[in-house]
Amino acid sequence: IANAHTLFNMINTCLFLPFVNQFVNLVVKIVPGREEVLVRGPLYLDDRMLKTPAIALSLATKEIVRMANLAHQMVLEAMEAFLRRDEHKVQWVYEQEEIIDQLAEQITTYLVQISQTEMTPALSKKHTSLLHSVTDIERIGDHAENIAEMAMVRIQENLPFSDQALEEISSMSSLVSETYLQAIHSLQHDNVDEAKKTLELEKQIDILEKELRRNHIHRLNTGKCFPGSGVIYLDIMSNLERIGDHSNNISSAVLGEH
Known about the structure:
Layout: H1 2-16, H2 20-30, H3 35-38, H4 53-84, H5 87-115, H6 121-157, H7 163-189, H8 192-221, H9 227-256
């Protein structure tokens, strides 16, 4: 009877897993504007699947991708907060950072539990890759929070920025966003080609960062940049470049599975 009950649960799980996203979307639509409250905890982690590591890792991947997308939204909102001097967006980023930290802890705990089961070599590689990715995504959330803090400094101190400086920050942000999204896709689809694209984009980030840093030094030397603004400029560039590095790490972990 016990075996039959277990088999019944596994069959039901397999039947409903493909429709989890639809159920989540339904809940969000029923209560519009409250998504961040409804999805504060993990959506996909299921302790009942821990004895089936292949399914458990699949669920963990879905949760990590959700966490990664939230971190990406944090980066976008932090940049908007800076460029538009929007304190509300700064506060939103701070709130989401708490959610990211909670998710990272819960996902890591789930992955540790999976590690106590017997896995094939391929699943073990996947497991290691996911653990590293959680750490990188959490760090990206930290960098988004740092950018939001820089936005608040700009607002409170009313720091001036030239149009060229703002355009450069926006350009760097766009490239970093593209790179991070590519990393998320490579993780979500476990795709080697997409992972390689991330690595190529990250090289472009390094090239652009060096070019923009030279431009910034020239503005400083010619007196076209306010010193306080210059510090913020460099801090934002540094955080964006680090997001690119973590994106590179995520896709490198995907490549390491193959």
